[in-house]
C-alpha cells in the first residue's frame, strides 16, 4: 500500500504540476498524505527510568576512519604518544 501510494504521489504531482491537470494534483496530494501517514514508526532502542536527581548523557560516536587504518595513515589531529608502537 505504501509503495503504491508513493508512486501515485510522484506521478500525480508530476502530471499535475507539469501538465496542469487538477485531477492529478488531487490524486497526488491524497496519495502523498496516505504515504506520509502510513510510514513505520522508528524502533525503540532503549528505555530507562531515571530517579530524581539522576541524569543521562547521550553521545554519538562515528564509525572508525577505515581509510587511515587501511593505508597506514594517521587520522587528522591524532597525537603520537612516546613509547607507543
Low-confidence stretches: none
Cα Rg: 25 Å
The count of strands amounts to: 0
Overall, the morphology is elongated
Classify the secondary structure makeup into a structural class: mainly alpha
Percent helix range: 40-55%
Q: Estimate what percentage of residues fall within beta strands.
A: under 5%
Element order: H for helix, E for strand: HHH
Largest sheet: none
Structure write-up:
This protein is mainly alpha-helical and 85 residues long. It has a domain at 1-40. It is built from 3 helices and no strands. The chain has helices at 2-19, 22-37, 66-71. Helix 1 packs antiparallel against helix 2 (22-37). The radius of gyration is 25 Å and the shape is elongated. The chain starts with a helix and ends in a 14-residue tail after the last helix.
Characteristic terms for this protein:
85 residues; 3 helices; mainly alpha; elongated; 0% strand
List the helices and strands and how they pair.
Elements: H1 2-19, H2 22-37, H3 66-71
Helix pairs in contact: 1-2
Put the structure in a nutshell.
This protein is an all-alpha fold and 85 residues long. Helix content is 47%, strand content 0%. The protein has a domain at 1-40.
Amino acid at each position: 500500500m505504501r509503495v503504491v501510494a508513493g508512486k501515485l504521489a510522484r506521478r500525480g504531482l508530476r502530471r499535475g504540476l507539469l501538465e496542469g491537470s487538477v485531477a492529478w494534483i488531487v490524486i497526488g496530494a491524497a496519495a502523498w498524505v496516505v504515504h506520509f501517514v502510513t510510514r513505520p514508526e522508528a524502533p525503540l532502542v532503549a528505555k530507562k527510568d531515571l530517579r530524581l536527581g539522576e541524569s543521562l548523557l547521550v553521545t554519538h560516536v562515528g564509525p572508525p576512519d577505515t581509510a587511515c587504518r587501511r593505508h597506514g595513515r594517521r587520522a587528522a589531529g591524532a597525537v603520537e604518544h612516546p613509547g607507543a608502537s
